[in-house]
Write a structure and sequence with these properties.
Blueprint lengths: L1 E4 L8 H5 L7 H15 L5 E4 L8 H10 L3 E5 L6 H4 L4 E5 L1 E6 L2 E6 L14 E4 L12 E3 L10 E2 H19 L2
Parallel strand pairs: 1-2, 2-3, 3-4, 6-7, 7-8
Antiparallel strand pairs: 1-9, 5-6
Length: about 180
Amino acid sequence: MIFFTGDTHFNDPRVLRLDRRPFADLAEHDEALVAAWNAAVGAEDEVWHLGDVARGTPAFKDGLLSRLNGTKHLIAGNNDDAATLENSHWRSVQAYAELDVDGTRLVLCHYAFRTWNGMGKGAINLHGHSHARLKPLPRQFDVGVDVFPYRPVSLPEILASRRRSSGKKRESTSR
């Protein structure tokens, strides 16, 4: 199975304050994210991380990535330094990618696009960076851990999330 995530910000104290993540400290945050990742992702699965992985030394990042299940690909984010980009645990590293998953064309970047390749033909833009603060365009999804609570998610989960939220809007307007 293929999973997507972003904005994990392991070992980054800013996320506890700025994003109000519900953890007592960074150690609890990091361990919860590792546990959630490994509960969702198996050893044979593939994960596309859409940037802003972690802060810390090369040794910290190497140890962290070695603990995370799956074959890992990185779409570089603005907080990913050379030690992150050059880590040997990534199968691939790039700024942008296009994939076909289950017949759906995906355009992956750390940043949300206003327009993207194949937009008019049903392509979907997956991104991070906005930490659940950006109103999405149709067929655009923030896959960061602030949107999908602290774990990687599959394309069916991503697509179902929009259907659930539009169903809630219809229910509340019909009352």
